[in-house]
Amino acid sequence: MSSRNVIDLSGKHVLVTGGASGLGADMSRLFACLGAKLLIADIDGQGARGYAESLGGGAQAVECDISDEDSVTGLTTAAREFGGIDALINNAALIDVARDLDLLSTDLSVWDRTLGVNLRGTMLVSRAILPLMIEKGAGAVVTLVSRQGIAPPLSGKRLSYGTSKAGLIMLARHMAVAYGKLGIRSNAVAPGTIQTARMLAELSPARLEQSKANVLTPYLGTPTDVSSIVAFLISDAARYITGQTLQVDGGVLTGLHE
Ligand SMILES: NC(=O)c1ccc[n+]([C@@H]2O[C@H](COP(=O)([O-])OP(=O)(O)OC[C@H]3O[C@@H](n4cnc5c(N)ncnc54)[C@H](O)[C@@H]3O)[C@@H](O)[C@H]2O)c1
């Protein structure tokens, strides 16, 4: 087996947005274990610094609000000083669970904030970091989207979140198409319900049971189920995979509920 077939991130400089908690933190930990050097960017600067310190291995942190242009300029400077970026994980996002409802009921401020962070913010970071990868002649981008960017929940809620994630699927494809010949691969990963600390706190036991019943697997996904797929996608083992949206959701969208 050639080493290209093994997930090895040795020497790769990886930037994870929203890496201070949740899936971003889990990914950062796994990437560090696989040999990557981490730059963690989060609006929670203190959390990011504490987490980077706990990872060791030269992991660094930068406070950044991805929806703010000046803040993203600061991130770009930090990324240059870090030695450039080989892989960008567009992970930071928000969801306003209580107020992100249907088209006729959602307050415009919720729409603006959700699209501003998730879609515009991710576009700003991608636009700032891609040139650093193009300079190196290689790079991988993974954008965390959601099954809700593919199929809206039957409840009719989460208009803003779902629309932002649908837009991100197109942003990920755009980067694959526009910069593929310059050595950039870009893929999206669409998780279903994943048992992060936030999800476990937010969802009632009954709702969790329902989620478990809806997937095709005997279990609900954990953060590592997502992290391992993202690690694979940014590794050289995935060098022929680009422009894809990979659903990591226990097959929840494959079967119809009768
Ligand atoms: N957890 C799930 O079940 C699930 C399912 C589908 C998709 N996702 C997607 O996976 C990604 C991670 O989800 P999570 O559950 O770990 O989220 P989370 O809310 O637990 O963590 C998000 C992180 O992003 C940071 N962040 C928020 N706004 C930011 C901003 N403006 N600038 C910089 N950082 C900011 C937060 O401080 C936090 O550290 C998101 O893109 C989310 O939409 C998660």
Automatic annotation (TrEMBL):
Domain of life: Bacteria
InterPro entries in UniProt: NAD(P)-bd_dom_sf (IPR036291), SDR_fam (IPR002347)
Protein name: SDR-family protein
CDD domains hit by this protein: SDR_c
Pfam families for the chain: adh_short_C2 (PF13561)
Entry's family note: Belongs to the short-chain dehydrogenases/reductases (SDR) family.
Record keywords: Oxidoreductase
GO MF annotations, alphabetized: oxidoreductase activity
Cytoplasm among keywords: no
